């Protein structure tokens, strides 16, 4: 995969997101590039601080997490 297309940061939310974070660490993503949150309340400010103009973002998760609210937050607050 070209360097411009690799995952450079991982943000997880919810209790099960911690398992995703653990798998990413085991796969070689440095722990300092992984952030886990129990709720969107902590996730949103961290995303806003980390995102730059050339950032590509994938938002994926169960409907139970209501990540459409995260997408709406990003659309409104990140330019």
Q: What does this 3D model show about the protein?
A:
- With 79 residues, this protein is α+β, with helices and mostly antiparallel strands.
- It has three helices and two strands, in the order E-H-E-H-H.
- The longest helix is centred in the middle third of the chain and has 11 residues, at 40-50.
- It is globular.
- The termini are far apart.
**Whole-number average pLDDT?**
89
Indicate the overall shape.
Answer: globular
Strand content: 5-15%
Instruction: Describe the sheet with the most strands.
Output: 2 strands, parallel
Spatial arrangement of strands, main beta sheet: 1-2
The number of helices is 3
**Radius of gyration based on Cα positions:** 13 Å
pLDDT below 50 for ≥5 consecutive residues: which ranges? none
Structural class of the secondary elements?
Answer: alpha+beta
Alpha-carbon distance between the termini?
27 Å
Helix content: 25-40%
Query: Helix-strand pattern, N to C?
Result: EHEHH
Q: Give a count of the beta strands, DSSP E runs of length 2 or more.
A: 2
Please give a quick description of this structure:
Helix content is 39%, strand content 10%. The protein has 79 residues and is α+β, with helices and mostly antiparallel strands. Strand 1 (10-13), helix 1 (17-26) and strand 2 form a beta-alpha-beta unit.
Descriptive tags:
single chain; 79 residues; alpha+beta; two-stranded parallel ribbon; 2 strands
Topology:
Blueprint: E1 10-13, H1 17-26, E2 34-37, H2 40-50, H3 68-77
Parallel strand pairs: 1-2
Helix pairs in contact: 2-3
